[in-house]
Structures are given as structure tokens and as C-alpha cells.
Write a structure and sequence with these properties.
homodimer; mainly alpha; Farnesyl Diphosphate Synthase; two-stranded antiparallel sheet; globular
């Protein structure tokens, strides 16, 4: 029986046997550096497991697995430049280790390499596969733009939907769907297409990926406030320091009374002249007062439940669903 | 008989009927701005004319024509950011009119849109077409990297081939082949593939495009020194002010005697403490002394002759070669 570990190992093997360094080395060394930094390799693993779920030969989908991870790393490389992030996976980001122009051009080239890997292996459904990959890429770009737009916006309180300059929960969920969930869902869909799965099952698997992706991102938001620094390697409260309008303040604003809402808004607008750690403490106290943690866990649980429901409904060999269930549990377990 | 003007008009029609604005508008407005700035639209015109040359139905290649021009404009957008160029086609560049992050992300999205347009219309040779497009894209990125590397290098004098830190003529020709010529050649090849042209003819057309592209770029280098400001809208000598190692100083270095070589090198290294206009005058005087203009014109003429030879050798309806001949003459006429 092939479990999650098996597919992760296959993915590691793909990366180990691929050569990323070429001429001119100024262009390819940052690419090699980025693709060898590691990471959880979730997307290519999902792609191969989805292919196998419908009885596909995973050998035929290895190029696409490499392509989807190369694309994902390209988006991280450009995002890190746009966000001016100094570190990625505990190492200096490309724009810091080299410079901005290197990050731009090596990123562009990684995007082209992703296409090279996708085009490496033919498939009767190649046109559909490439369209799925490409429309996913466009949505990821749109999601990143919305994320940047939100940074300049305020927090919408309960009842406000599209209040100018404020972010509503619906808009936020739409943003993380595009920025995070569609790539997981797209990876699964592409794997299923390689296996020649029926349209209906492909659709269910895609929706499984969307709910999994949403749960994953909400989990990430929650960890910023409540994660164990020792386990997750990140200092808690960074989103608060950065005034990031994640699910936490957006949901908190709905749970707050009028007075608490004003306090939250002022804290996220840096209107009180207090130091960063005091700000984190006050925001966390507000979260505590409205029972935010339980509410967010409920929302995450709901997304995981929807994902599971989708997976249960897929008509395929139950044994082959194992790696997808394991992955879901692994992501779900992050909160503990 | 369909002439160059006819295909240019078809291309204009494609752009006029396409909608580039979508949500989020912060992402798509710079794309619409870029794609509506105009330009000569040489690449999509070549693509359609090549398709028609071999009896293809140009309706089927319109998506690819739109795609190749969208890709070209994406490279200009990112190049302008990397080169910090304030103007493009006489208008502010995206990074100046908006900001750096907009230039990065709108550029990335334009690249994805290019793929959307390529994937819009099926073709029996789609896999080959997409591979040609993608390998071309990778070469363009490599060419841009080499161009940036050259900016930090010196000028190799006669006989030096790969002298460390100095650019040789061979290396320069290889760089402009990748940065400029392969996209013209790729556009022609893609058009021919849509028409289902025989492999041999596709290869000849590709080589026609390479020589045309090299001639075009050398022409551009020459115009910087000898162009008519009133006609070309650019101040002459800008490459000299920027110490750009174009074909002009590289070829001049070969023609110079030892003393002249040292003077040229010092001028391009800004070693003499003189003002910019004096520097331009001294470099131009050196060019004059070695008869550079005539030598560069000879090199350009040789590339045009090779292009023409390739075109002559293509087995196809002579009448249908007309637009390609007209384009060659148009580009050749730029020097007058």
C-alpha cells in the first residue's frame, strides 16, 4: 500500500536527479538554490497521489510534478521580493542573497522552466492539463494582487460587505482561495487528468483541494497568534506587528462590540503610541475576550470537514485515498 | 495580393477586439496600458505572414500572434524595471507610472496571459508550437542575463576571445541572438508550424529570422551613433554615455591601433575626468578615425544578405514572400 511517505520520496527523487545549473550561471545558480531549499513539496506530492488515485502511471506525470513545484517556488521568489522578506525556509531570500534584478529574471526563468517540465511528457489530455495549469497561474497572480491591495485597507466590521477601503471576510476568503487554495486544487486536478479520470471525479477532487487549501491558510493565520514558537520556528504575533488583515482580526471584528471594534481598529492603524509588544498583548487580549481561538478553530474544522466529505464522495479505490487522508491529517495536526 | 500592410492591419484588429482590463484592476490596468502603447507589432505580423506563406489559415494562428506580442511586451516591462528606464515608446514605463511591485506582478500576469492566448486555439502541432515558444522564452531570459553581465565587463580587443571580464564580438553576437533574434525567428517558426510546413522549410525560415534579427539589432546599435535624432526620436550617443558595450565599441576596438585602443578603453571606463558630451565627441572621433560606420554597415549588409538568401531558398509561392521582403526592406531602410 502506497502511503504519503512513498509519494514524498518519489518527489524527492525527481528533484535529486534534476540538474538546474546551466549557463549563464548568474541566472541559474539562484534557481538551483531556490529549488534545493526544500520545503514540504506538498503540491507535486498531491499531483502524483491524485494520478495514482485514478490508476494512472505516475512515471508519466513526473514532469508535471516537477513543473508545479517549480512554478510554486517561482511565485515565492517574486512574492519575497515584493514583500521584502529577508528569509525563506530559514535561509536568505534570492533578492537578499543576490539582488533585485536577479530575483526578477531568475524568477521569470523559473516560470519558463516550469513550462518546460510540463511540456516534457505528452498526454492525450495535455491541452486540458496546460489550460488548468495556466488558469491556476493567473488566479495565483490575482490572489497576490488582492493580498497587496488588502495591506492598504482597513478591517470591515460585521455586516459590511464591500465597504470601500475595508476588507470583508468574503473578500478575504476569495483572496486566499486564489493565492493558496487553487494551486493545491490545480495540482490534484492535473494529476487526475493524467490518469484520465472522469470529469465528475476530477471536479470533486478539485473541490477537495480548495477546502484543504482554505483550511491550510486559516491554520496558518491561527498559528501566527497561537502557534508554538519552538515547533513552528516563527515568533508569534508577526501578523499583528505587520498590521496584516488575516482571518484573525477580520473574524474578531465580527465578534467585537462597538467599543472593542474601535480599539481593534486603532491598534491595527497604529493610532495609539505604544510599543510593538504592548500592541501584540492588547490585540491578543481582545482576541481572548471574544473567544476568537475557538471560533477560528470552528471555521478550520468546517473546511476540513468539507474536504473530507468531498474525498469520501470520490468514486475510487479507498486504499488509494490513503495518502490524501494522511496529508489532510498532517495539515490538520499543525494546530496541536 | 496580401502585403505587409495587410498583415499589420490584421494584427491591429486582433488587439482592438481584445479586452485586457479585468479584476483586480490594479493588476490589469498596467497590462492594458502596456499592450495598448502600440509599437511596430513586428513579431505577430511575422507569425501570420509565415503561416500564410505555407498556405495556412491565419484565423487559426491569431491566438498565437496575440500571445507572442504579449510575451514580447512582458519582457520589455520587466527589462525596463531592471534597466530603470523611465520611458518606453515615449510614455512612462509601468514601474515609473505605478511602482516596482506592480511592474513585477503585472509582468508575471502578462506572461501567463501570453500562454492563455497560445492555448486558445488548438492545432495538430500544438505541442511542438508550445515547445518552440517556451524554449524561445528561456533563450530570451538567458540573453537578458548575458546583457546585464556585459554591463559589468570591459571591451575585448582584437584577438581576445573569452578574456575574463571582457566582451568579445562572438559573445556579443550570441547575446543579441538570444535577446533579440530568437523571438523573431520563433514567431516565424510558429507561424510555419500552424500552416503544417515541412521541417526543412521551417528550419530555413527560422534561420531567415535569426539573420533578420541580428541585422535589426546591429542597425539599432548603429543608429545610436549615427541616427537622425529627428527621425528616430532618440538622442544619439546614449550608449556611449551609458558605457554600453554594443557592437560599435567592440568592432572599433578591433580596428584601433594600440594607442587608440587604450584611449577607447579609458573613455568607456570613465577614467578621464571629462564631461559627457566631450566623451561622446572623443569616442565618435575615434570611430571616425578607424572608419567604423562603413565597417558596421558592411556587417549589417552581410546579415541582411544571409537573410535574403534564406528567404530565396524557401520552397513556397513567391508572391507570398512579399510581406517578409517588405519587412526586411523596412528594417534595412532604417539606416538611411
Amino acid at each position: 500500500m502506497k502511503d504519503l511517505k512513498y509519494y514524498l520520496k518519489v518527489v524527492e527523487g525527481i528533484f535529486e536527479s534534476e540538474v538546474f545549473v546551466a549557463e549563464p550561471k548568474e541566472l541559474y545558480e539562484p534557481i538551483d538554490y531556490t529549488l534545493r531549499l526544500g520545503g514540504k513539496r506538498i503540491r507535486p506530492t498531491l499531483l502524483l497521489a491524485a494520478d495514482a488515485l485514478f490508476g494512472g502511471n505516475i512515471e508519466e506525470a513526473k514532469g508535471a510534478a516537477l513543473g508545479i513545484e517549480t512554478f510554486h517556488n517561482f511565485t515565492l521568489l517574486h512574492d519575497d521580493l515584493m514583500d521584502r522578506s529577508p528569509l525563506r525556509r530559514g535561509q536568505p531570500t534570492v533578492y537578499c542573497k543576490w539582488d533585485e534584478n536577479t530575483a526578477i529574471l531568475s524568477g521569470d526563468t523559473m516560470y519558463a522552466l516550469a513550462w518546460r517540465y510540463f511540456l516534457r511528457q505528452p498526454s492525450p489530455r495535455l491541452h486540458e492539463i496546460l489550460q488548468c495549469f495556466n488558469e491556476t497561474a493567473i488566479e495565483v497572480c490575482e490572489g497576490q494582487q488582492k493580498d497587496m491591495n488588502f495591506e492598504r485597507s482597513g478591517v470591515a466590521t460585521d455586516g459590511e460587505q464591500h465597504c470601500r477601503g475595508r476588507v470583508s471576510i468574503d473578500e478575504y476568503m476569495d483572496m486566499i482561495r486564489q493565492k493558496t487554495a487553487v494551486l493545491l486544487a490545480g495540482a490534484l486536478k492535473i494529476g487526475a487528468l493524467y490518469a484520465g479520470a472522469p470529469e465528475e471525479e476530477v471536479e470533486k477532487l478539485y473541490r477537495f483541494g480548495i477546502h484543504l487549501g482554505l483550511a491550510f491558510q486559516l491554520q496558518d493565520d491561527l498559528l501566527d497568534g497561537y502557534g508554538d514558537t519552538a515547533v513552528f520556528g516563527k515568533k508569534t504575533g508577526q501578523d499583528i506587528r505587520d498590521n496584516k488583515k488575516t482571518y484573525l482580526p477580520l473574524r474578531a471584528a465580527q465578534l467585537c462590540n462597538g467599543e472593542q471594534q474601535r480599539e481593534l481598529e486603532n491598534l491595527f492603524a497604529d493610532k495609539d503610541n505604544i510599543d510593538e509588544e504592548e500592541k501584540v498583548r492588547r490585540v491578543m487580549a481582545l482576541y481572548e475576550a471574544v473567544g476568537l481561538k475557538g471560533e477560528v478553530e470552528k471555521a478550520i474544522g468546517a473546511e476540513f470537514a468539507l474536504a473530507e466529505e468531498m474525498l469520501d464522495g470520490i468514486v475510487a479505490d479507498e486504499e488509494r485515498k490513503l495518502p490524501l487522508r494522511e496529508l489532510m491529517e498532517m495539515l490538520n495536526g499543525r494546530k496541536k
